[in-house]
């Protein structure tokens, strides 16, 4: 089936259903709530939404533990509500991408209940079961992302089963062809309903080493590398055998072959690995693999110009024709306004150049709900924690609830317009979000919300930004700058844009290479923190500039 490539450079808006809008006042966001707010999403000028999981689930990991892949959890609504959401989105010109958690199920999934019942039932081999070592300990040294051994003892089968996350998220055995077939059938179910694509959860975790070999130890983290979180098992071992196995690629190709039967569908794979960028390059291709790979590298702490230059240099080295998806926030990490700001508060200019960076890099931007409002991370007391990861790691790591609080729609409303009325929402409303509520920013032409809208609308008309090449300017202590260039058309040179951002609180000057001449500033972009002269450009503190090159 033909693919018009809308996803290439298209903007995705991630919605976390529990926390977007509550239509029935039970304290939990739901599908009808999302449908009612879709005009707002469309008004931003994005191309697609990605819905975090809304499938039947005991909600131990808030939907990333699925117990029925082909139905909607009653807390979120019904399949009919999903169809209405889909039709409404399509009517507004929005594509709909859904989150497929194929690597593991909930322990309440009928497949797992059957699998754990005995060693010889028809689904006995659908999960990763293994005998203990002679001394009773787990089969090998693999660690769970959420802490502790990745193996859990099951008293009925007297065997261990593998779980990369919670013990209630048993890992499916992809070496069994029946498992692959069953999962492809669930993917097809939603394609037949009319979804436009998938975000694939942990897309490199599908297969494990069938010989169950130990991972090589990585040694105790020294604290010298600020990007390494000592609580994350990535700091302790190289994940050579529990993920990113060669067989993954063959399964992604089967998924791609299925999607290729449906016009204009796409998939973005979440790929967390020791060398995520190399893996992203390996897993994406125009022809027969993932369309896009979700990149973690802007979801961490550092963001100054030297960091960005080194990161993007590496991206250019490895990515080839692969296509990255850039996110500044998501439902798993501290919101960017708090993560990139000094002492938890971002200078207003910083959020604007961060947005401009994300929207001008080669790749597809993925906004997280509330990014466009500049929401800071919410403070959550231990008593209010829901995230099992946070409860396990407290207080060293406070978990993921601080980025999952209800969206602030209406500043004056007691429930911030979330829709729960007098009912306490599942996570507390963040008082720090009240002054940033959508309606308040709607009424202020200078707000971050209007900045996003202007930039998103302008961006759609810039061919260099949608699919053009990207070339970095030399490294600079304060300024991260690059050129995006559209391919030549019928012998005529394509559009060339200079994008330059001052990631510092001091003014900055950048001399331009002799072959680059600024023809005019793109003031319609709203990114207007600098000026150009004959030799180069000058940027205000946290200022950015986008310019046409002649
Ligand atoms: O997250 C996978 C996950 O935890 C990675 O972000 C991991 O931290 C990374 O690979 C380490 O480099 C997904 C979902 O986004 C998350 O909400 C779920 O809890 C998890 O899968 C389990 O389904
Ligand atoms: Ca509800």
Automatic annotation (TrEMBL):
* Annotated Pfam families: Alpha-amylase
Q: What residue stretches are annotated with the Glycosyl hydrolase family 13 catalytic domain?
A: 14-404
Q: Where is the signal peptide?
A: none
Q: Which CDD domains match?
A: AmyAc_OligoGlu
Q: Which family does it belong to?
A: Belongs to the glycosyl hydrolase 13 family.
| Entry protein name | Alpha-glucosidase
Organism in which the protein naturally occurs: Sphaerotilus microaerophilus
């Amino acid at each position: 089936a033909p693919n018009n490539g809308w996803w290439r450079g298209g903007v995705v808006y991630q919605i976390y259903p529990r926390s977007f809008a509550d239509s029935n006042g039970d304290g939990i966001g739901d599908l009808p709530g999302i449908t009612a707010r879709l005009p707002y999403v469309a008004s931003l000028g994005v191309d697609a939404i990605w819905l975090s999981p809304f499938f039947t689930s005991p909600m131990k990991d808030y939907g990333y533990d699925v117990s029925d892949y082909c139905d909607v959890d009653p807390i979120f609504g019904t399949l009919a509500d999903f169809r209405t959401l889909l039709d409404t989105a399509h009517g507004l010109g929005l594509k709909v991408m859904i989150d497929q958690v194929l690597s593991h199920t909930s322990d309440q999934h009928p497949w797992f209940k059957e699998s754990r019942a005995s060693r010889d039932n028809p689904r006995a081999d659908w999960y990763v079961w293994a005998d203990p070592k002679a001394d009773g300990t787990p089969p090998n040294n693999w660690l769970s992302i959420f802490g502790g051994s990745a193996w859990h003892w099951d008293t009925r089968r007297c065997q261990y089963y593998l779980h990369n996350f919670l013990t209630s998220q048993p890992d499916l055995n992809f070496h069994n062809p029946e498992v692959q077939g069953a999962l492809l059938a669930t993917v097809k179910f939603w394609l037949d309903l009319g979804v436009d694509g998938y975000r694939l959860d942990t897309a490199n975790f599908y297969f494990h080493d069938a010989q169950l070999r130990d991972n090589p130890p990585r040694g105790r983290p020294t604290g010298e590398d600020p990007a390494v979180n000592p609580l994350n098992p990535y700091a302790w071992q190289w994940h050579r055998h529990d993920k990113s196995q060669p067989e993954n690629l063959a399964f992604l190709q089967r998924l791609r072959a299925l999607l290729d039967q449906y016009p204009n569908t796409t998939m973005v794979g979440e790929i967390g690995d020791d060398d995520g960028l190399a893996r992203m390059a390996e897993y994406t291709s125009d022809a027969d693999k993932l369309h896009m790979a979700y990149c973690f590298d802007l979801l961490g702490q550092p963001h100054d110009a030297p960091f960005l230059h080194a990161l993007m240099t590496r991206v250019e080295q490895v990515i080839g024709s692969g296509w990255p998806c850039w996110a500044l926030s998501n439902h798993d990490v501290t919101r960017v306004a708090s993560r990139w700001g000094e002492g938890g508060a971002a200078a207003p200019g910083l959020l604007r150049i961060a947005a401009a960076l994300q929207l001008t890099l080669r790749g597809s931007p993925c906004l997280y709900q509330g990014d466009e409002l500049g929401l800071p991370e919410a403070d959550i007391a231990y008593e209010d924690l829901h995230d099992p990861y946070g409860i396990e790691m407290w207080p060293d790591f406070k978990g993921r609830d601080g980025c999952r609080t209800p969206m602030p729609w209406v500043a004056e409303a007691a429930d911030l317009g979330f829709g729960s009325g007098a009912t306490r929402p599942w996570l507390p409303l963040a008082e720090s979000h009240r002054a940033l509520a959508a309606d308040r920013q709607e009424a202020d032409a200078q707000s971050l919300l209007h900045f996003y809208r202007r930039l998103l609308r302008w961006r759609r008309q810039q061919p260099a930004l949608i699919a053009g090449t990207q070339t970095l300017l030399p490294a600079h202590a304060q300024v991260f700058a690059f050129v995006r260039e559209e391919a030549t058309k019928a012998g005529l040179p394509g559009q060339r844009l200079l994008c330059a951002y001052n990631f510092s609180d001091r003014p900055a000057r950048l001399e331009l290479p002799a072959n680059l001449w600024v023809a005019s500033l793109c003031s319609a972009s709203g990114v207007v923190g600098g000026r150009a002269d004959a030799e180069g450009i000058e940027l205000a503190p946290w200022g950015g500039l986008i310019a046409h090159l002649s």
